[in-house]
Amino acid sequence: MATLILVRHGRSTANTAGLLAGWTPGVTLDERGASQAAALPGRLAELPLAAAVSSPLERCRQTLQPLLDARPGLPLHTDERIGECHYGDWSGRKLAELSDEPLMAAVQQHPSSVTFPGGESMRAMQARAVDAVREWNARIEAEHGEDAVYLMCSHGDIIKSVVADALGLHLDLFQRIHVDPCSLTAIRYTGLRPFLVRLGDTGDLAPLAPRESGTDGDAAVGGGAGAP
């Protein structure tokens, strides 16, 4: 079956501000995120991409724009199922503030039990994302052959949940996975099992260095600088 390249959107204004963006409108790439997006065509230059699929949220569309400009014939599709988790009443709030919420402990330790106030459950988030991947795998293979490579641009928690599924991990373990902004994760699907061949690849080892509290991190419930 197809090989899927998962791209997390570039660093956003919400990442910089330490906000849980969710589907909050007006969240765009910051200056660094735009630079990360500009580098994406070069990083993917060796790959004959069959198609690109994007979350409908602006930060993902912005991340893909330089790639689309460099490859004007690359088909672009939008799929709401790989859009960010619907965090409901938590959307737009500061992660530092949310860390005091009793539910946050369950988000980190037992996410399969969590439904966000006014939002969706983390189980539903994973289910829709995995369904989307499986359907796109079948479509891409049918149209372009079993060796085809395609790309999805999505969000941290979505990508982590897809990786957990590929590894056969329970959703309660997905918080052990981390993907930086504009990182590349590759999963090769076969008829018997998926193979994780890249995880959170940025080509940059700087994120492995110790970070000062409050520096730019991963503004998702899954963690990052200063997050639980």
UniProtKB/TrEMBL annotation:
UniProt keyword annotation of Isomerase present: no
Matches recorded under InterPro entries: His_Pase_superF_clade-1 (IPR013078), His_PPase_superfam (IPR029033), Phosphoglycerate_Mutase (IPR051695), Phosphomutase_MSMEG4193_put (IPR022492)
Taxonomic superkingdom: Bacteria
CDD domains: HP_PGM_like
Residue numbers spanned by region Disordered: 207-228
One Pfam family of this chain: His_Phos_1
NCBIfam families in alphabetical order: MSMEG_4193 (TIGR03848)
Listed name of the protein: Histidine phosphatase family protein
The species this protein was found in: Streptomyces enissocaesilis
